[in-house]
Amino acid sequence: MTLSRRGFLAAAAGGTLLRAQEPQGPVFRVKVDMVVHSFQVTDSKNHYINGLKPADFRIFEDGIAQKISTFAEGANTPVAINADGTTTPLLNAKGAVPGMDRPDAFVGTNVFVLFDTSNFMYRGFVYAEDAIADFVRGLDHADSVAVYTFSRNLSRAASLTREHGDAIEGLRNAVAGDDTALYNALLLTLRDAAKVPGRKVVIVFSNGPDNASMIAPDDVRAVAEDEGIPIYVISTSEVNKDPISSGVFRRIAQRTGGKAYWARTWQRQVEAFDDIREDMSNSYTIAYYPAANPNEGFRKITVEIVSDVGKKYRIHSRPGYRPSRSF
User: Fold this and answer.
1) What pairs with residue 72 in β-bridges?
2) Contact in structure between 154 and 117 (CB atoms under 8 Å)
3) Beta bridge pairs of residue 145
4) Which of 113-117, 217-221, 279-283, 291-295 has the lowest mean pLDDT?
5) Mind listing the domains of the chain with CATH numbers?
């Protein structure tokens, strides 16, 4: 039986963990499949740097050099890195990537929008819908999008689709009301996103305070870290009005390679969505099979640019992940 941290938490909560029969207790073995790592490269003025190639990067896990298996920039078709350093497009290489059910599974980004429809959002509900709809319309045609809404419970308003109009239609059917279980909803969204191959991001649009969740925010953050899913948070609250929620949002975004925004007005919300869209379209995505590593805990990922000029650039990404455990 193999459990990710997500499954480990769920099993522990339900009392269903299997225990080894030996008196010394369970024996854990680390199992790591492909690691997908997305990041942005910027200069000193925060301008995106585009056009870099696989040979321009080196990636390390706990200081151990890794061999890049696939590489992509933005919504472009990803390529496989051959042994001689040449590249082969993955679009026509069905089955080249584990879990790839269709030839274009790794083209574009899978975007999960999690929209707070609790009673805290009542006043700005219509404006928030408009900001989300504008964001969805502006996505690249290769991007897939799902729209989930939540108050006390999660509603999958629109399943993951490249038909962006269908996602907007699902969004428009959202209904406001009830308490806020943000972290419960975020965990369920992450579990859905983790099942999808390729690049993905989760965008949380919320007023901030959570008064109904049964799971701690740091546990949700850890699941996102393990799955390699960046979380972007747009809060319609004032940054200093709820310092606890603001601190959690910052920590979740930073630790997963996303960003946090505080946007009370419709214009600020649109600007935040524009910034997220820019991040997505200017991202690099590297995938690799980890080299042997005895570390069963948190593994630090470091991306370096080979060229001298590249040493002046900044790389924005998640700091690492925890491998799954086998019992």
Assistant:
1) 285
2) no
3) 111, 161
4) 217-221
5) 2-105+282-326 (no CATH), 109-281 (3.40.50.410)
Confidence (pTM): 0.81
Token pair of 25, please? 């207790």
For the record, the structure tokens of 101 come out as 């059910």
- Joined together, the tokens standing for residue 42 give 């910027």
CA distance 69 to 67: 6
8 Å CB contact between 36 and 285? yes
User: In the sheet where 64-66 sits, what is the strand order?
Assistant: 64-66, 57-61, 299-305, 320-321
Cβ proximity of 255 and 318 under 8 Å? yes
pLDDT digits 0-9 by tens, 186-233: 999 999 999 988 789 999 999 877 888 988 888 888 888 888 899 999
Please answer whether residues 40 and 316 qualify as being in contact, where contact means their C-beta atoms are separated by less than 8 angstroms: yes
Structure tokens at 1: 């039986």
Q: What angle do CA 302, 305, 310 make, to 5 degrees?
A: 130
Rounded CA gap, 192 and 176, in Å?
Answer: 23
